Amino acid sequence: MLTLSKYTYVNDLVNRLTxxxxxxxxxxxxxxxxxxxxxxxxxxxxxxxxxxxxxxxLNNFKKDFTDSFKNIMPLVKDLNNRVAEFAASLNLxxxxx
Length: 97
Known about the structure:
Elements: H1 2-17, H2 21-32, H3 36-51, H4 55-70, H5 72-96
Helix pairs in contact: 1-2, 2-3
């Protein structure tokens, strides 16, 4: 059950990071990986695959990759707001009890 729950969160995050299917797959596999060894293998495969791109495909990939990192800060702000709201709700519950 934990893995399904983790996948749900990872999938939501990845879908908000990028629309690029290749990047979504890589990010999902990377974030779901259980060990650093698996992450290293994924990094190597990702690097090799990206080096095989040329021309416009490479330019589009670079743009999508860069844009996905630009989307991280809004996600961090959203997470911060959610945590703050949750923390505030805990304080309210303590005061009521």
